[in-house]
Design goal:
By secondary structure, the protein is mainly α. It contains seven helices and no strands. The two termini are 13 Å apart.
């Protein structure tokens, strides 16, 4: 079975918002569903508008590029589930999940409609639209494995 796309995961989320958070979220994360969705929306949006902070160029050209290649080859990302984006606004734990999901859908629409060059990723550096699409989908699936498991029901 192929990996779900960013759009497929976002559509699944709109259908699964009523499910218990524990069925959607990765175990061991310290964020609620709303915070997780806000975080994912930030990274999708920043890939178009620009991230607030970048790792040093040497890191992006070496370890960051290697990590990107590994994730793309493996088809999955692996990172701390509570790692906020450097310089991003704080995540609001009290924002209703439906609002956070709407924000993610808006960010995905912005990304999907974007035809120009993308902003540098803070760790991976330059990414094509296809690479970002795949990385965003993997990132969302890592935070919300219940969306991927829901495809198999």
């Amino acid at each position: 079975m192929s990996s779900p796309t960013l759009t497929e995961l976002t559509e699944r989320l709109s259908k699964d918002l009523g499910r218990p958070e524990a069925e959607l979220l990765a175990p061991g994360g310290g964020w609620n569903l709303s915070q997780t969705l806000q975080h994912c929306a930030q990274t999708v949006r920043y890939s178009v508008t620009g991230y607030p902070g970048l790792k040093p160029a040497l890191f992006r050209a070496t370890a960051g590029t290697l990590a990107k290649r590994l994730f793309l080859r493996r088809g999955a990302t692996k990172h701390s589930l509570e790692a906020e984006i450097d310089g991003a606004p704080p995540l609001d734990p009290s924002l209703p999940s439906a609002e956070a999901a709407s924000g993610l859908a808006d960010a995905v629409a912005l990304f999907t409609g974007h035809t120009g060059p993308h902003a540098l990723h803070p760790a991976y550096g330059r990414c094509t639209h296809d690479e970002f699409a795949r990385l965003h989908a993997m990132h969302l699936a890592e935070h919300l494995p219940g969306l991927v498991d829901a495809r198999r029901r």
